[in-house]
């Protein structure tokens, strides 16, 4: 009886874990993809000098490598006067020849996009993201192993004591708040991002460690290996897929719509578990639900990987200072994939 109640509470917590992550990071990812709140920049194929040339009315370069002005079929060379006449009675306008603030902002964004397309800058950003991600996964693996060293003591204390029962929920709530705070551009680019990263990782590790302690250690190892293979395959596909017609960076809106439906369906199931909603309110199959969840977060993993990797074929990409946010996004996707695969294998093995 105690084993059955433990499995039920773990299933509810894992459902809530996936759903809360779904709400916080996925809806924010959609808004970031549409309104560029998270510093995702739009990549333009035209270079800045060419745009400035066209705006000035230039028709290209003449044979003498000077700027040419085109009128119909005739081409005239423009040569500025060496000593132009000046009106001694006129005063120069304070705004004449000074670019507007909006123009400077657009030029800065254009130069940033062109500079960040350079391979060395992008590779430095990617290396930072995956270095942080590796540290997060190591901390989570250590937490899972720690929970399995004494599964009866730690798990029973968290399941059947008033204080212990709140720890996984508190860890999940704290990690979600830390992630939402990191979405702010000011926090993502300041030193406060490091404490938020530590809080987020520790909170997630406690929740994942508690959920994994319900299942056999062999099942956890199988789920971890399956998640590693899936993550490697998705990452390899994203890196090799360079067709702009299938740009993975533009999937934000579609994935957010699926996430909202998935969130509501999972929330109703959690309410059914606790008796708030009568059982059978909506048809529910654990295996299909977990398969859909693993597939959804696999798509999110591909989407976030493309935002991080970027390139000329990607319409959107992350800011070079968002390496902490990028690592947290990938970590959240991988953890959710692991949880759903663990629930699928747990139904078979246990």
TrEMBL record:
InterPro entries xref list: Bax_inhibitor_1-related
Q: How does it sit in the membrane?
A: Multi-pass membrane protein
User: Which is one Gene Ontology cellular component term of this protein?
Assistant: membrane
In this chain, the stretch annotated as Disordered covers: 72-105
Keywords assigned by UniProt?
A: Membrane, Signal, Transmembrane, Transmembrane helix
Q: Main location per UniProt?
A: membrane
The answer to whether the entry has keyword Nucleotide-binding is no
Q: Does the keyword Isomerase apply?
A: no
Q: Where in the cell is it found?
A: Membrane
Origin superkingdom? Eukaryota
Q: Which residues does UniProt assign to the signal peptide?
A: 1-22
Record-annotated membrane-spanning stretches:
167-184, 196-217, 223-240, 252-275, 281-302, 323-345
Which family would the database say this protein is a member of?
Answer: Belongs to the BI1 family.
UniProt name for this protein: Uncharacterized protein
What is the species of this protein?
Answer: Thalassiosira oceanica (Marine diatom)
Give the taxonomic lineage as stored in the record: Eukaryota, Sar, Stramenopiles, Ochrophyta, Bacillariophyta
């Amino acid at each position: 009886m105690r084993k059955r109640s433990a499995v039920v509470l773990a299933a509810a917590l894992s459902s809530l874990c996936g759903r809360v992550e779904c709400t916080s990071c996925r809806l924010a990812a959609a808004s970031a993809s549409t309104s560029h709140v998270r510093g995702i920049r739009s990549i333009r194929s035209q270079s800045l000098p060419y745009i400035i040339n066209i705006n000035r009315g230039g028709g290209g370069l003449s044979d003498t490598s000077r700027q040419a002005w085109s009128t119909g079929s005739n081409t005239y060379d423009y040569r500025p006067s060496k000593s132009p006449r000046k009106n001694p009675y006129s005063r120069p306008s304070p705004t004449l020849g000074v670019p507007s603030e909006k123009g400077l902002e657009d030029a800065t964004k254009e130069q940033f996009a062109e500079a960040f397309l350079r391979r060395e800058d992008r590779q430095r950003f990617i290396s930072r993201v995956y270095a942080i991600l590796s540290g997060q996964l190591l901390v989570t693996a250590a937490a899972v192993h720690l929970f399995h060293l004494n599964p009866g003591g730690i798990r029973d204390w968290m399941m059947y004591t008033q204080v212990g029962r709140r720890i996984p929920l508190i860890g999940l709530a704290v990690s979600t708040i830390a992630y939402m705070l990191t979405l702010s551009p000011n926090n993502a680019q300041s030193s406060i991002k490091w404490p938020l990263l530590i809080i987020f990782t520790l909170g997630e590790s406690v929740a994942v460690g508690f959920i994994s302690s319900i299942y056999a250690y062999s099942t956890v190892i199988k789920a971890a290996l399956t998640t590693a293979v899936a993550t490697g395959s998705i990452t390899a596909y994203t890196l090799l897929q360079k067709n702009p017609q299938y740009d993975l960076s533009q999937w934000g809106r579609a994935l957010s719509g699926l996430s909202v439906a998935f969130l509501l369906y999972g929330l109703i199931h959690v309410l059914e578990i606790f008796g708030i909603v009568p059982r059978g309110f909506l048809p529910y199959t654990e295996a299909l639900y977990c398969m859909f969840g693993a597939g959804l977060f696999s798509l999110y993993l591909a989407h976030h990987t493309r935002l991080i990797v970027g390139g000329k074929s990607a319409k959107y990409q992350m800011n070079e200072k968002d390496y902490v946010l990028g690592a947290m996004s990938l970590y959240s996707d991988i953890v959710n994939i692991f949880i759903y695969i663990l629930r699928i294998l747990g139904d078979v093995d246990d």
